[in-house]
Amino acid sequence: MGQSMRVALLPGDGIGPDVIAAGVRVLDAVARQDRFSIEYSTHLLGGVAIDEMGEPFPAQTRDAVIRSDAVLLGAVGGPKWDRGPGHLRPEAGLLALRKALGVYANLRPVRAFPALLGASPLREEVARGVDVMIVRELTGGVYFGERQTGQLQDGERFARDTMYYTESEIRRVLVKGFEAARLRKKRLTSVDKANVLDSSRLWRAVVDEMKSEYPDVSVEHALVDSCAMHLVTRPHAFDVIVTENLFGDILSDEAAVLTGSIGVLPSASIGNGPGLYEPIHGSAPDIAGQNVANPLGTILSVALMLRYSLGFPEAADRIEAAVEAAIAGGARTRDLAAGAAAFLHTDEMTEAVLAHLA
Ligand code: IPM
Ligand code: MG
Questions:
Q1: How far is ligand 2, taken at its centre, from the CA of residue 249, in Å?
Q2: Average pLDDT over residues 319-332
Q3: Long-range contacts of 114-117 (CB under 8 A, 24+ apart)
Q4: What is the pTM of this model?
């Protein structure tokens, strides 16, 4: 065996454990093929961590992820923990994890699988060939700015959140956006609300200052509301979209449904240390533990992990090709089966992918 990689697993809540098990099987398979070994460790995050340790991101988890080479996360959250105070919610654990890892850029590739186009809410001719990469700023903006809840003198309640960015925070995520565009169709759309927000005007200014460093990339600015509209009317107009945290959260959910299959979409969150990889879908507590969740979002997140953190880009290509082949061959989990009675369970879909990997 060659190198050994430390991969921290954070199954989390709901279907998280189901899909993480699938991801591990695929990662093990490529590790055997490419002769590297993986040291796994499993840690608590989210609701399960609240239940067992009283907090969503315990210190043991923090120490382990920081020392890993990469982190694979299932999902966090569920109705059971929805009533807790802000800092005791599963989502607070996810934000603290992102901050602890310093993963300031979230990459969400959205690509239409030809065989799944029927499931898209868009007409087939609009959805066909959609291939967008959203690069979302992940550790700044309104998610992490100063916030306050209080009462005015007369008893009127108020709350505020702050969208705060420094130019270096903007610049480093823009670098990821420009670099991603360079490896793709060389078109970058920077999304902001510069007609209203100061933070957006700074964002736009930094984009314009950086353009000359990437003369091969064509850059356009778009306002977030108009971008939201164009994503559904002419999704082909986009190659790489780069934007701040909250805008990226909203636009990436919108983009995710274009392909008709949020269950197959992966994400990578990267910074200067270990990367964090997770499917885009949530914890789906209603189907947890039933072996019906779609594992493809996690399996494709494993591919991104191999590409961006572990240094095995060919293995990533092989996994993506195997997923594509499994879908083209008719493999469907329940969410993709359009109501048909026959569908593959989580483990069977995983085996369909493994069969094409072999
Ligand atoms: C996401 C999710 C999270 C976010 C939530 C769960 C805090 O919506 O990863 O997009 O808003 O970042
Ligand atoms: Mg979101």
A1: 4
A2: 96
A3: 114/328, 115/327, 115/328, 115/330, 116/259, 116/260, 116/261, 116/264, 116/327, 116/336, 117/259, 117/260
A4: 0.95
- The atom of ligand 1 lying closest to the CA of 77 is 6
Active site residues: 143, 193, 225, 249, 253
Integer Cα distance of 268 and 334 in angstroms: 25
146-200 pLDDT, tens digit per residue, is 999 999 999 999 999 999 999 999 999 999 999 999 999 999 999 999 999 999 9
Question: How far is ligand 2, taken at its centre, from the CA of residue 246, in Å?
Answer: 9
Contact present, 265 and 281 (Cβ < 8 Å): yes
Ligand 1 pocket (Cβ < 6 Å) reads 91, 94, 249
C-alpha dihedral (338, 340, 341, 344), degrees to nearest 10: -60
Spell out the SS3 assignment of 2-44: CCEEEEEEEEECCCHHHHHHHHHHHHHHHHHHHCCEEEEEECC
Residue 333 and residue 75: Cα distance in Å, rounded?
18
Tokens of 45: 């995050």
| Residue from 268, 254, 275 nearest 107 by CA | 268
Domains of the chain, CATH where assigned: 1-108+260-358 (3.40.718.10), 121-136+167-259 (3.40.50)
The SS3 assignment for 93 reads helix
